UniProtKB/TrEMBL annotation:
UniProt keyword annotation of ATP-binding present: yes
This protein's name: ATP-binding protein
Top-level taxon: Bacteria
Keywords attached to this entry: ATP-binding, Nucleotide-binding
Amino acid sequence: MNKVYLSSFSVIEPEEEFYLYYPSWLNVWESHLYNRAIKSTNAQGWYFKRFGCDKALYAREMIRKPAYINYIEAMEQAAEQALQQLVAKERMRLMKSRTAFIYADAWGESGLFENITSALHVAVIDTLPKNLLKKFSVKEFACKVRGEQHAFMQALRMAQDYLSWDVFDFVVICVTYRAIPLLVFSTAESVAQDKSRDSQMNISVERVGCFIFSQRKSALQVECGKYALPASHKITLDTLCADNADITQLAVAGLSTNLLYRQGADNQHASMPDIISLSEKYGDSGCLTPALGWIYLDRHAASSGKMRTVMPDALGGYHYFDTRYEP
């Protein structure tokens, strides 16, 4: 059985305001990538919401070098919330069971972009947050996945395999997204140019999330699909839903969502699923954006159904997973 259950999860974002990015001659390469990213995504500008922004600093610089300690503290808070959402019996079972821990982020060693003076904090960001390993009593297995936009999708596939093979009883995935402007623009400028998208503002939101998976039944049942690369390199609703007629909602992650709307004929289907652009609804969080579909279900699902969450890539292919839910 390849299906797994999402036993508990928590996603945290900053309480700070949104700040508009302004290109500067002091950061020439960053400004160049910004212009390319704006062109690729057909946007008018870029807002950022980051952990640790200090309002006492110059507004145009605070989003480049915010305090990293708030980001680290948010990891701890998300893990604690996810753990406490489990009933006491399940928490005790997790502590005494075979538990794996997967730490996933987009950039890998991103400590170089922070004003860090502590080697311990560098290790937390660049390798593994050992305080979280202790929190979940992880003794069996721990690793880090660096996959840029697809880090969470890859970690989710690993969790599904480990649980279906009965290697572990629980798998904890901690996912972090640090919206470093230079890296955000570098990723966005490589996507397929989105000329059909209405011109608007892009929004990048830093988030951290903790997700606990097991084989014990819960309201959210998750199943990962295989990576797909359509022969035409065009992702349409027919392509995404051909193998499943019972999909009621289609959640799309990423800034380039025009790939789903190229075929007007798709809109003629009577059974067309509801389409939710997660990046436009909640702000883009890179590798963590696909998980925002579960927040949508938690807030809006009125009846049982099935959501397919899709993360397109720059080559015309996509990763996806399905979530069956019962409110």
